[in-house]
C-alpha cells in the first residue's frame, strides 16, 4: 500500500511575520517566503493589490494547526445557528 504525500496550502508558523500567508505560499510553491513578500510589496505599490491578496489569503488559507479556514469557520457557525436543535443536540426539521 503506497502513501501519498500531498502538499496543502496552509498558513505556517515557521517564518511567520504577520499571519503566515507568505511563508505558507513560499513553502507550498517551493520558494523563499521573502520573494513572495517582495512580490506582494511590489503589487501593493502598483495599485494596492498586494494588501487585498494578503487579506484574501489570510481569510481563505487554513492555519497549519486547523483543518478549516477563517471563512469556513464563520460559514459553519452561521449554518449551525440557523438550524434549530433540541436539548439532545439533534436537529429538528424546519417547517
TrEMBL record:
Coiled coil: none
Transmembrane segments: 38-60
Chief location bin: membrane
Membrane topology reported for the UniProt record: Single-pass membrane protein
UniProt cross-references to Pfam families, sorted A to Z: PspC (PF04024)
Entry keyword Membrane: yes
GO cellular component: plasma membrane
Domain spans labelled Phage shock protein PspC N-terminal: 7-64
InterPro entries: Phageshock_PspC_N, PspC
Entry keyword set: Cell membrane, Membrane, Transmembrane, Transmembrane helix
Name of the protein this chain belongs to: Similar to Putative stress-responsive transcriptional regulator
Natural source organism: Nonomuraea gerenzanensis
Amino acid at each position: 500500500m503506497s502513501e501519498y504525500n500531498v502538499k496543502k496550502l496552509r498558513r505556517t508558523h515557521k517564518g511567520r511575520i504577520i499571519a503566515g500567508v507568505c511563508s505558507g505560499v513560499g513553502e507550498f510553491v517551493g520558494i523563499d517566503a521573502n520573494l513572495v513578500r517582495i512580490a506582494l510589496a511590489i503589487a501593493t505599490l502598483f495599485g494596492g493589490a498586494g494588501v487585498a491578496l494578503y487579506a484574501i489569503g489570510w481569510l481563505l488559507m487554513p492555519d497549519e494547526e486547523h483543518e478549516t479556514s477563517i471563512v469556513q469557520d464563520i460559514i459553519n457557525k452561521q449554518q449551525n445557528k440557523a438550524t434549530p436543535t433540541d436539548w439532545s443536540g439533534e436537529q429538528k426539521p424546519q417547517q
